[in-house]
Amino acid sequence: MKLTRDLSKDEKKLLRGTYWGSFTLYAAVSPAKQGASGYCYAMIPWIERFYKTEEDKRAALVRHIAYFNTTVPMSSFIMGLTASMEKQNSESEDFDVNSINAIKSSLMGPLAGIGDSFFWGVLRVVAAGIAVGMAQAGNILAPFVFLLIFNIPAQLVRYYGGFLGYTLGSTYISKVYESGLIHILTKAASIVGLMMVGGMTSKLVVFQTTVSMSMGGTSVLELQDMLDQIFIGLIPLSLTLLCYYLLSRKVSINYLIFGVIGLGILISLLGIA
User: Fold this and answer.
1) Nearest in space to 239 (alpha carbons), one of 259, 215, 214
2) Nearest Cα to 123, choosing from 140, 146, 143?
3) How far apart are CA 133 and CA 270, in angstroms?
4) What is the pLDDT of residues 79-89, one digit of tens each?
5) CA 114 to CA 109: how far, in whole Å?
6) How many CB atoms lie within 10 A of CB 88?
7) How many Cβ atoms sit within 10 Å of the Cβ of residue 72?
8) Domain ranges across the chain
9) Alpha-carbon 33 to chain mean position
10) What confidence score (pLDDT) does residue 172 get?
11) What is d(CA 183, CA 96) in angstroms, rounded to the nearest whole number?
């Protein structure tokens, strides 16, 4: 097959291992890191293969324990791509290691959008529609048909996605470096990654205050409306930036999680939100 034609036997073996490793992506999911631990686990064979010193191995592990969240079948493509970048980093002294996480953060959002739309929004519905029709007709094979229709395309994308990502990376990254475009690509990827973080903050961090002032039984001031006129999402953004600042000051993520939970309970009991 064209994707595997120019790969060594060792690389093919590692890519097959990446496929199996991708099954652990959300095995130890956490609110702070999502699938980071599973991603890091899938990258360990590559790290062991490319790096010789313990210091280099530790640095690579730290890179891949960063936040990661995308549709599972699409994850192997990013794993293959970052594996090729790790290979390039191990062979080139002037490789920009920041580009590895920049590429990861810029791709996981768009690929999640594509993957969620296709696998969860289209393929699952089609598979369920066919299986339900069979089940209503009394066919005992209905659940197996559902699993096959959904999983065969998902597993093919997951398996060959790693090969595609690795092949594209191996082919084009050196050319991008030679042309000097890697710095532009890294900056663009960082911007897209920050945009994804901003979008997630706007979508997931929600605060609606119920504080209001009334005169003669008529509401004369709604605090939430006033805040929205100043800046929509002002309090969620402020809270996010505060947490980011505390993290940069080495405050434990566990303290932040319990602190936010406690703050939410307190303001709810006080009737503020």
Assistant:
1) 259
2) 146
3) 52
4) 999 998 888 88
5) 9
6) 20
7) 18
8) 9-200, 206-269
9) 9
10) 62
11) 8
